[in-house]
């Protein structure tokens, strides 16, 4: 059990950090705005009161320490996804990691953003209320592919 936990923790942090480095690279090279983890934190904090869907998370009541909550939630979700990967792929995957299971998980996890987080924050299903919806969707696919590559690379380092 402890092997599962520490591997999930390390692999999840590695995958999430890869996604963050990707976001910084996109920001520096193409000027794409960095994720606003304070608003994500605000959304997660509002979940405690039972509020899932907002018309505009920016107009929702702010929470104390919402930026920290956003960063914690971001990494906690990455660790949770890594745990699911390690559980579903099995112990053999941690000894001989392959990219395909990590990539499949990365593609499946896009659904959480498209059908829970984005509509929850007021952006609509798969960012449909955003003027640049297709750009957001393509960036989501790219970012989750980078997340998958980070999961895989971290698993390779740990084997």
Count of distinct strands:
0
Strand content: under 5%
Q: What is the averaged pLDDT score?
A: 97
Based on CA inertia axes, which overall geometry fits?
A: globular
Q: Any low-confidence stretches, pLDDT <50, length ≥5?
A: none
Number of domains: 1
Secondary-structure class? mainly alpha
Q: What is the CA–CA distance across the termini? A: 17 Å
Helix content: over 70%
Q: Which helices and strands appear, and what pairs or packs with what?
A:
Elements: H1 2-30, H2 37-47, H3 66-89, H4 91-95, H5 99-121, H6 133-158
Helix pairs in contact: 1-3, 1-6, 2-3, 3-5, 5-6
Notes on the protein architecture:
With 159 residues, this protein is mainly alpha-helical. The protein has one domain (2-158). The chain is 74% helix and 0% strand. It has six helices and no strands. The model has no long low-confidence stretch (mean pLDDT 97).
Summary tags:
74% helix; mainly alpha; 159 residues
Summarize the structure.
By secondary structure, the protein is an all-alpha fold.
């Amino acid at each position: 059990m402890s092997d599962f936990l520490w591997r999930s923790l390390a692999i999840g942090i590695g995958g999430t950090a890869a996604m963050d480095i990707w976001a910084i690279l996109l920001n520096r090279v193409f000027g794409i705005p960095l994720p606003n983890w304070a608003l994500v934190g605000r959304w997660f904090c509002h979940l405690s009161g039972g509020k899932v869907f907002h018309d505009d998370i920016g107009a929702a009541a702010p929470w104390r320490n919402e930026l920290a909550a956003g960063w914690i939630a971001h990494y906690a979700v990455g660790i949770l996804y890594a745990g699911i990967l390690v559980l579903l792929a099995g112990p053999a995957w941690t000894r001989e990691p392959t990219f395909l299971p990590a990539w499949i998980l990365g593609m499946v996890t896009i659904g959480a953003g498209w059908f829970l987080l984005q509509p929850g924050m007021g952006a609509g299903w798969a960012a449909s209320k955003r003027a640049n919806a297709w750009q957001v969707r393509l960036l989501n696919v790219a970012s989750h592919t980078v997340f998958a590559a980070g999961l895989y690379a971290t698993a390779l380092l740990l084997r």
